[in-house]
Structures are given as C-alpha cells and as structure tokens.
Amino acid sequence: MKVIDQEINALKNSVSEMWSLVRQQLYNAGETLLSGDKELAYTVISRERRVNAFELKIDSDCEDIIALYAPVAIDLRFVLAMYKINTNLERLGDFADSIARFSINLPEGEPLDPDLIKETRVEDMLSQLLEMLSLAQEAFEKESSEIAAKIFLKDNLIDEINRDSTPIIAKYIEEHKDRALAGLYMASVIRKLERFGDHCTNIAEELIFYLDAKVMKHIGKAGQTKTGNGSEVQ
Are 156 and 164 in contact (CB under 8 A)? Predict the structure, then answer.
C-alpha cells in the first residue's frame, strides 16, 4: 500500500470517529432537552473539547496530505471533502453544546412543558436529525452517493417543523406569560436544530462531490438552481 493510501485511510478513520462522537453529542443533548437531565448536559459540555480536538487534528491531517503528497483526482476530492465535512461536524458539535447549555439555564423546577414539546414536534425533529447524521455516516463508510442523496428529502421535514413552530410558540407565550422565557428558549433551540439540518445537507453535498465529482452547492432541495438573491428558478 502506498504511503498516501495509508494517510487517507487514517484520515477516514479519524473522521468516522468524530462523526460517531458528534452523533452521540446530539443524542445526549436531545435527552437533556426532553428530560431536563442537567448531569447529562454537563457531560455534553465536557465532551465538546474532544470534538474541538478532533477538528484541529483532521484539519492538520488534510493540510499535511495536500502539502506532502499532492493528491490528484478522487484522492484530492476526498481530502477537500473531508476538510469541509470536518468543519460542518465541528459546528454540529457546537450546536449540541449550546442545546445542553440551554437545558442547564432553564430555571430549576421548570422543565419544558410536555405539551409544548409535543405541539412543536421537537422529538420528531431530533429523531430526523439523528437519522440524517446516521445516513451521512453510512454514505461515507459505504461510499454511496445514493444514500447521501436521501438526506436532502429529510431536511424538508426539518424545515417544515421549524416553520410551523413559530405560531405555536407565539400562542404558548401569549397564553402562559409566566413561562415566556421557556417559550423563547424553545424557539432558539428549534432554530439551532434547523441549522443542524442545514449542516447535514452540506455534508451530503460534500460526499456527492467526493464520490461523483458533482457540485451540489447551489442546487435547491427540489432540484432548482438558486439565484443570487436567494430565490429559486426551475
């Protein structure tokens, strides 16, 4: 095996480890959100340092491979994709950390209203996001652009839940003025989860670039091309 192949395999293993860590971070952050388990929230926060350490190592490994071995074709696409996926995974770790901190900041004895959780479909949102991350990791490990493409459809549901949550939370705050802070916190968390979905689609785009040499960056979710003002055309 050539030295560059060994380095690329080592990079792939590091990214896979980071992926599993970030998925566990999201799962634990979701549990703290739903249950109010502050001890678990502190665990998420303490493990954020490991996510950051992975990011620094993977960045350095990508730069070393490019500088020392001058990869070409699919090897170069792989390294470039890993560099960008690494950034997205680190941002996902940040979101999990911020959700855990939100859980800690909730007033003692005032967990989130179960009815609000149900109406905003936060559990569904968390479940879909975990599945998106798992699909992305499966696509990465099996080198399957078909699996990666499934992530785009799931992100549509995340956007729908985010959009529908605004009037629900506004009504909740109006009817429960003493719980307004919890309602505002919930709105913030849902927005973070929506951004989480966006980063998962970014990862899917990078996987497709690496595997098929197709640039998906400016393609809309339904196959439209985005214009400069953010609108979409067929």
Answer: no
Backbone angles phi, psi at 109, to 5 degrees: 80, 5
Using alpha carbons, select from 23, 26, 17 the residue that is nearest to residue 61: 17
DSSP of 65-87 = HHHHH---HHHHHHHHHHHHHHH
Mean residue pLDDT of the chain comes to 90
CA dihedral 146, 131, 205, 58 (to 10 degrees): -120
- DSSP bridge partners of 226: 232
How far is it, in rounded angstroms, from Cα 18 to Cα 164? 32
The answer to whether residues 93 and 22 touch, using CB atoms and an 8 Å cutoff, is yes
Nearest to 196 by CA among 139, 149, 143, 151: 151
Characterise 50 by phi-psi region: left (phi > 0), alpha (psi -120 to 50), beta (else). alpha
CA 11 to chain centre: 20
Q: How far is CA 47 from CA 28, 196, 220, 233, in A?
A: 11, 18, 34, 43
Helix, coil or strand: residue 226: strand
Q: Which amino acid is at 179?
A: R
pTM: 0.88
Over the stretch 26-51, which tens digit does the pLDDT of each residue have? 999 999 999 889 999 999 999 999 99
**Cα-Cα-Cα-Cα dihedral of 59, 97, 25, 108, to 10°?**
170
Nearest by Cα to 77 from 215, 200, 217? 215
Tokens of 89: 């995974």
Q: By C-alpha distance, which of 187, 158, 161 is closest to 172?
A: 187
